[in-house]
Amino acid sequence: MPPREETASQEESSSLKIPVSPSAPTSVVALALTPAQIAETGSVSHPDDPLNWPVSRKWIVTAALSISGFNRIVVSTIMAPALPVISRELNLTTIQSTAALGAFVLATAFSPLILGPLSEVYGRAPVLHITNIWFFAFNLACGFVDTGAGLIASRLLAGFGAGAIFALASGVLGDLWSPEQRGATLSIYLLVPLLGAGVGPIIGGFVEQYTTWRWMFWSTSIMQAFTVTVCLIWFRETHLPTLKTRRSNINNETPSSSWRKPFSQLPPIPGQLLRKSFSTPPKQLLLHRSVQLQAALSGFGYGILYLVLSTFSSLFTSNYNESVSVSGLHYIALCLGEIVGSQIGGRLMDYLARKAKKITKSDRFQPEFHLPIIVPGAVMAAAGFLMYGWAAQRRVPWIVVDIGVFILSLGLQMTGQGLQAYNMDTYPDSRASTSAAIQVFRSLGAFALPLAGPKMYSSMGYGWANTMLGSIYVGGHVSGAAFLWKRGAALRAASDPVPLEMM
């Protein structure tokens, strides 16, 4: 089937044009206004295709997804400053309290394996709305538990619902935006969720000092209730095969009414299709070397981020004699680094991608054009590691440590964006499933590396420990990016992309 042609929207004019890349999924058939037109002109592009939506509608859907991601990341880190208090009140051992903190992240490793494929069968919207409510219910329950087992179980179930965002993000952004706009759209989408990584420990520190730890969960549940409402109002289905199936079952409905067709009216899905969808992420992890390498690099990078998040506060309470609430303010440096990295990195990635396309004289946009941003990002992350580690080792003024963490998080974000953009365009017919496969390693890294952090820093010191981590990070990411640049296209051609069709 030939690539879809670009259709200009007449609803509004904008300087942001939406080109349809030849690398866009070719399994998708444009939507027609009536069943007769579908049968007659199934391959004619139409504005109902999410790639051809008005820019304003695209940003509204992107904003709803971004807001949904914020609270889920806040909850993953908000407990850290209050672990000693929670342990005393619920009579938890150190291992049990660490398990309560990590259960949330651990659940996000496996829930995308179910929720990602489901979004490619039933659509993105049902999965987002149901998991939003699921997450709200079990996060609220965390504030009422009276036992350690209850807290661990509630955190595990809350994390299962929260994990949907990691699979849906790549799928929805890929549905809406062309590969040439990947950097710009990722930078805007990530702006709000990235605040969560730094805001969580800050909120947790002040809540722990001035009120009960239970308000960590009650306050974020209030925020989640707001998120549920926003998504129900703003978010619209973006999965084109789902929209096409929904449209084909319409008799005489108008296009506008079809967008809000109840989930209960969607056609039943054969069991064979469900089995195929659930098998996609494991197959990609086991059989696709490109996905394996992306998963390893993303897992280590995400683990490094959570290693810093879990140990940063204790550095200032032990080495600089600060209170828990004041030590939490240093997360602002990490948060700023991620925000600046997302904004600079997104634009730089698009610029380098255009240069790469021009230099290679390619007539098609290749996923490998997203990879060059990884090199400067990895170098900056390594430099930040060195500055942060040796400043903390020698107990120089805290501002030097914060600057080092700022540079570190900036570099982590730039490399992460490049990998995420590459992942989104590697297998466009199964973006959510591919993201789910990679998320397994990301969440396992975020769960495992923080467990080793305290002992590593106590035995090696901050200087040598961070030197080791920085060396591994820059070496692995630069060599990995070089390998994918050289061999990525061949690996994709040799692999079965395991597409999930909804025809």
UniProtKB/TrEMBL annotation:
How is this protein named in the record? Answer: Major facilitator superfamily domain-containing protein
Q: Which GO terms describe its molecular function?
A: transmembrane transporter activity
Q: Which PROSITE patterns match?
A: MFS
Task: Spell out where the chain crosses the membrane.
Answer: 95-115, 127-146, 152-174, 186-207, 213-235, 293-316, 328-348, 369-390, 396-412, 464-485
UniProt-listed InterPro entries? MFS, MFS_dom, MFS_trans_sf
Protein's organism? Naematelia encephala
Q: Where in this protein does the record put region Disordered? A: 1-22
Q: Give an example GO cellular component term for this record.
A: membrane
In terms of superkingdom, the source organism counts as Eukaryota
